[in-house]
Amino acid sequence: MLRRTASRARPTRPWVRAQLAVAAAAGCLTCRDTTVTPPPPSDRVVAIAVVPSVADLSPGQTQAFTARSVTAAEDTIPGATVEWRASGGTITQDGVYTAGPDPGDYSVTATKVGGGPLPGRAGVHVFRRVLAMLRVQPDTATLPIEGSWPLSATAYDSAGNALPTAVITWASGNPAIALVDGGGVVTAVAPGAATITASSQGRTDSALIQVVQPGTGPWPNEPSGFRVISDQPWAFLVSLGWSVQFGVGALGTDPTAPLSPPSVLRMAYPVGFEGGTAPGTLVHELGGVRQLYGGIRWKVSDPWQGHASSVNKIQYVFTNGHGSMFLGMYGPPGGPYELRAFPVFSTSSDAWLVPNVNHIPVTLGVWHNVEWLIAYNTTDDPPNGICRWWLDGKLIGDYHDVRYPPEGLTWYKLAPVWGGVGDAKRELDYFWYDHVHISGR
């Protein structure tokens, strides 16, 4: 009789288990979506960035924000068309934000018109700044009667930062000597001293103004406190720091010289002398001063043939790389002649500074006292540079809106250039210099 053997489950071999696992995994893959979303194109705009991202402002201050598109490649593209919103203060649709009156933290948001990318945001911190100090510049000035000088006052907070929105008032301690208007421009009235005071939020600062009577002393309109750079009587041609740059100048004698007779410097223009040049040029270093006074005793021959361009130059001041300015005798070839200044700096507008106080002609054959004051501007908006000149103690021109270059003055030149291009002398003419006095700071 046959015996039936009981059946037993055999263990699954390892390779079989591996095949079953692969089959199970394949079955799971067929039951779920494994599609991978491709990244956006690198040039697609995905967000908006606001620049600057943070601004610290005082109440009433403004800040211009700009919006830029940010691509998937993290590049920024200017010129995004956005709609602006602010959680405090106001903002124009050009992105100009104005802080409100209340201190605090606020936000500015730029949203792309039509939607799409993520909006951009910037933080704004508005804090109340307390005026801690006023500063008046310059703190001293010397003015002739009828002259004027613009003072400027800057308000600072306790951290030393300027407060451009501070309201400043001006007052003169002696209006009979000097007046001051609401913008800080001082006008001299009579000889003496006056204190000009600026005030704002309980803080004050002041400047001392000295008003002098024209016609006193050898250099009556030289500001006090200026350091003498040269005082040249022309006893020798090359001395006391002077040198000849080109051409020739000759020493002569004139017992009628008013300040340092009899020796004088003589510049001759012989028959046939061509326009656009000088008989000679003598120079003296200035050391980069930004305020300069020049006084000369000067005479023109009688007769004098003026240049066809109406320009007869007397003296120059130069910078190293930003141009120059000259004072000249201006008028048609037969006269009359007047003194004018012409800035030829890199910052100049190529326009004459003409007499705007008194109109006094140059008298030929007579010694004149010519004075010239230059003071660089302390602000560019608007410029407040000074150019002022006198003839025999009388104020001729007074300008206080000249824009001087960033570089100080490096050279003073006696360069009596006759006119411009063309024309020629048909007679023997002369310029004489009795004395040159230069000071500055």
UniProtKB/TrEMBL annotation:
Pfam families: Big_2 (PF02368). SUPFAM superfamilies: Invasin/intimin cell-adhesion fragments. SMART domains: BID_2. Residues 130-210 form the BIG2 domain. It comes from the Bacteria. This is BIG2 domain-containing protein. It comes from Candidatus Segetimicrobium genomatis.
